[in-house]
Model the fold of this input.
Amino acid sequence: MAYDPNNIFAKILRGEIPCNKVYEDEHALAFHDINPQAPVHVLVIPKGEYVSMADFTASAPEELVVGFMRAVGKTAETLGLVEPGYRTLANAGANAHQEVPHLHIHIFGGKPLGPMLDRQFSN
Ligand code: 5GP
Done:
């Protein structure tokens, strides 16, 4: 999938749309999700035009891949989630219901989060 430079996270990165920032460095920006699904729900996005994890890890410079992953860890630390625990998740593509076509890692926390996925799936 080609990157759409008009997606909402691209606009946030360019400062065209505001966000509630948690952490930022040269590689990444972290901000609160507008529609939180847990007491703490933050999104971490890389500074670059990448649709998904597959796209990012195939195309991004190594320094950015490393910097982005470090930013996810730093964001969890900044939010005070390391000791109580938290969950990270990245949706990609239609089956995962990815809504925004700019790679983002969700960080969820602030309460016991329950099972990882719906356990009632069947083949
Ligand atoms: P996805 O389904 O693509 O993994 O998740 C996209 C997430 O982006 C959703 O949780 C949604 O609430 C969040 N989101 C969509 N638009 C905005 C926005 O303009 N600002 C913020 N902060 N979050 C957004």
Summary: The longest strand covers residues 40-46. The chain has three helices and five strands. The chain has a mean pLDDT of 96.
